[in-house]
Each structure stands twice: as C-alpha cells, then as structure tokens.
Design brief:
- Two copies of one chain form a homodimer.
- Chain A has one domain: P-loop containing nucleotide triphosphate hydrolases (Rossmann fold, 3-Layer(aba) Sandwich).
- A six-stranded parallel beta sheet of chain A has the order 3-2-4-5-1-6, sandwiched between helices.
- The longest helix of chain A is centred in the N-terminal third of the chain and has 23 residues.
- The two termini of chain A are 41 Å apart.
- With 209 residues, the first copy, chain A, is of the alpha/beta class.
- At the A-B interface, helix 1, strand 1, helix 2, helix 3 and helix 4 of A face helix 1, strand 1, helix 2, helix 3 and helix 4 of B.
- Strand 6 of chain A pairs antiparallel with strand 6 of chain B, so a sheet runs across the interface.
- Chains A, B: This is Corrinoid adenosyltransferase.
- Chains A, B: Pfam families: Co_AT_N (PF12557), CobA_CobO_BtuR (PF02572).
- Chains A, B: It is found in: Cytoplasm.
C-alpha cells in the first residue's frame, strides 16, 4: 500500500465534511448563474495553447452539432492538423477561411499583409453579423491588430454594436490589446513556464501542428 | 481608407527590412532544433483551456492518424463534447478511459475517490509503458495528485524511468506539483484574467462543455 492509499475513518469523516461544505458552496454559486449569452473570449499570452484551446471549443461545437466558423488571420501558410480534420470530416458544420498568407516575418510585404488582414476582417464581420454561426473563431487576429493591419477601435465598436446576442466570438494571439480585454467576457492568459525549444527539440507532428 | 491601411514606400521598406531580420533570426534558431522526443507536457493554472488545449493535441493526433489515449482522472461524472465526438467518430484512433467518478466535492467519499484515482493511474501506466500510443493524456491528474490520491514521487519516477522515448504524456489540472514541473519539457500556466461566471453567466454548451 502506498502512502496515498492509507486512510483512517477519522480522515475519511473529515474529508467528507470538507467536501460537503465545498459542494454546498459551489451549488449555491452555480444557482446564481442563470444567464446565457454569446461570449467575447480572448486567449492571449506568450504560452502555448491559445489557438489549440480555441479549436477545442470549435470541436465542442461540432460535437453538439452547432454551426461555427474559423477565420485564420495570420497562419495561412502553415498547415495545421485541426484544419485538415475539419475540412475532411466536418465541413458541413464548420466553415473555414484562411486569409493570412503566413507569419509576417515570412512575407516581408506590408501592403500584402494589410490587404490579407483587411480581407479576413471583412469576412469575420460578415460571419458574425449573419447570426448563423454559434461561434466564430478569429485565429491570431491579435497579431494583425498589434501590427495595426486592423484598427482596434473598429474591432471593439463592431463587437459592441454588431455582434448578435447569442454569438460567441473567440479572438486569439499574443499581446491582446487592453481595449479588447476591457470588453471581453472571458480572458485567459497562457503563460510560458517551460518550452522544449530551449533544449533543441523541434516542433513535432501531433503536438505543435 | 482606415488608418491601418495608410502606408508609404518608406514605411514599407522599413517594414520589409525589419521582417527580413526577424525571419533570418528565426530561421537560424529553428535550424538548431533538430531533435525529436516524446514530451512531458503540463497544463496548469487557474484559467480555462487546460483540458481543452490538451484535447486539441489529441485531435491533432487524430488528424495525422496517430494513435492516442485519454485517461480522465476526475471529470468522470461530466459529459464533455470532445469525449462524445471521439467515442462516436474516432474510437479506432483514440482510446478513452474515464476512471474518476466526478469532482471530489461531488462524491464526498475519500476511499472511493482514492480507489478510482489508483485505478486510473494503473491504466495510465499500462497505456504509456506499452509504447503503442504516440500521446497519452492524463486529464485532471494534478487534482488527484494534489489530494494525495496518487503519490507524486511514484508519478515522477515512472515518467523518468518507464516512459518510452517517443511517447508524449500530457498532464493537466490546476496546482501542478513542483516535482512534476521540474521533469516536464513543456509547461503552460493558464491564468484567469476575466471569467463570465462573475457576471452571472452560466456554463454554456459548446463553450464549457
């Protein structure tokens, strides 16, 4: 028997009491949460998982048969497993638009980058305003905003005034602007604690892409 | 024309030069990253997205036709969209084991929780040691470790000595132990910046589950 398995009746009783209190407190809190609305969700920070967690929500939508759409602002040049899987198996539930043409340091052409970002933003507005999608993911839009390819004030204004009440909009990318965080309902900062690149490990299939 | 679209030849030249430098620096760094190995990945922190991003990596594996497995340590009582989707469509690529019987504050039975956690850990060891899975996700194992239902030293020893070189193991849950972070290759802390529960919004289909 390991240490973790040792237990006494007294331990068990104390534990049951503690957990019962936790459950009561949690049930009380949950009972006050009754509203539903389309959320503005932001995933930012230097860590991994911003886009991955956002695609996870798209898969949740697919699992429930709810319609969604993805607009990729920057990563257009990169092939991702999720995109291939969605295109191959779930294209009837999730629309996919890849408007960026790769990371900006790959293209070195500012005019082309701006045109691509503006086209992606126009498509994003159309998808959101239609009210036909339960969730619209604007993948890496924060990068396009940070480079001023898209005007942050226009994004904030649009989300505040044009987003249908029940539509969820997810915006990802590091360096999310304060104006965006201000109007968001759910903001998570993915913080990098440790990264395998530091020890010479390359990006691997099934992990990074 | 918006401000973001205004550009001058001088701006463009400066931008191209800056991006070319970035690309050269990045290419140089990427050239040193040549190793492949199975990573120990930890998603922790109080924010959202820990499990969602981990399931995203499972979907990447599915997209590439690579075999994976999921062991759910705690959330057994909750139905998640991802699980239903994997079971319905991709069970040939991803094995699913739900060993926990709900959050600990739901059960209030320490002996039962310990037995469930130990059973999950036994299954996890079997799946990892087999070498047949490219990725094994130990969902919410950090909670079971935190409550001492599983011995952290046993987990660390096992991962160090028994994990096959090319197998990725992903461990999620808040309050990851320092001993685990120490041996991990990739650690991300999901930090909560803003949460809709605070304004009375309940958990919604396609977002939280």
């Amino acid at each position: 028997m390991t240490e973790a398995e040792e237990t006494t009746p007294k331990d068990d009783a104390r534990h049951a009491e503690k957990m019962a209190k936790k459950k009561a407190a949690r049930d009380k809190i949950m009972a006050t949460k009754t509203d539903e609305k389309g959320l503005i969700v932001v995933h930012t920070g230097k860590g991994k998982g911003k886009s991955t967690a956002a695609f996870g929500m798209i898969f949740r939508h697919i699992a429930h048969g709810m319609p969604s759409a993805v607009v990729q602002f920057i990563k257009g040049g990169m092939s991702t497993g999720e995109r291939d899987l969605i295109l191959a198996r779930f294209s009837e539930l999730c629309e996919f638009h890849t408007m960026g043409e790769g990371f900006t340091w790959e293209t070195q052409d500012r005019a082309r980058d701006i045109a691509a970002a503006q086209a992606a933003w126009a498509k994003a507005k159309e998808l959101i305003a239609s009210g036909e999608k339960s969730m619209v993911l604007l993948d890496e839009i924060n990068i396009a905003i940070r480079y001023d390819y898209i005007d942050i004030n226009e994004v904030v204004e649009f989300l505040k005034s044009e987003k249908p009440h029940m539509t969820h909009v997810v915006l990802t990318g590091r360096n999310a602007r304060e104006e965006l965080i201000e109007i968001a309902d759910l903001v998570t900062e993915m913080e990098l604690v440790k990264h395998p690149f530091r020890s010479g490990i390359k990006a691997q299939k099934g992990v990074e892409f």
